[in-house]
Automatic annotation (TrEMBL):
SUPFAM superfamilies: Adenine nucleotide alpha hydrolases-like
Classification via Gene3D superfamilies: HUPs (3.40.50.620)
Family: Belongs to the universal stress protein A family.
Top-level taxon of the source organism: Bacteria
Protein name: Universal stress protein UspA
One Pfam family named in its UniProt record: Usp
UspA domain boundaries: 9-141
Organism field: Kocuria rosea subsp. polaris
Amino acid sequence: MSNGTAAAIVVGVDGSPQSVEALRWAARTADALGAGVKAVGAWEYPPEYAGYVPLGSDNFDEITRKRVDKAVHEAFGDDVPAGLSTSVVFGHPAKVLVHESEDATMLVVGRRGHDGFRGMLLGSVSAACVTHASCPVLVIHEDPDAGRGAQDRPA
């Protein structure tokens, strides 16, 4: 973390349930570390757009902003933690988050879940963050009990 920069926990937000949970984890951890939370959404043009759609004529930035705002609302409702900021950045999510980690106290990302053997593997963005981030990385896995009532959970 560079001098003069306020401590921040950066959270990669893509709107998935794991990224919403990552926001919650970051907020709980921020108090203990005396840090703020920075929710970051990243976007880039899909590869097929390059030859077919004039660049700059879409609304990916706006869609990503809405996705980040919705995730913050899902995580906290109207009780948004003090010190939480949001940003939307153009670029590949892994590259954006690794860059954001340079001034971060911690990076928190969600891992999209898969069943079976594939479920033991990290996704490409979370794996890149773990490998290349400049700070500690917390990867939030999908809650296997999500959507199940307490009576349905194993004892």
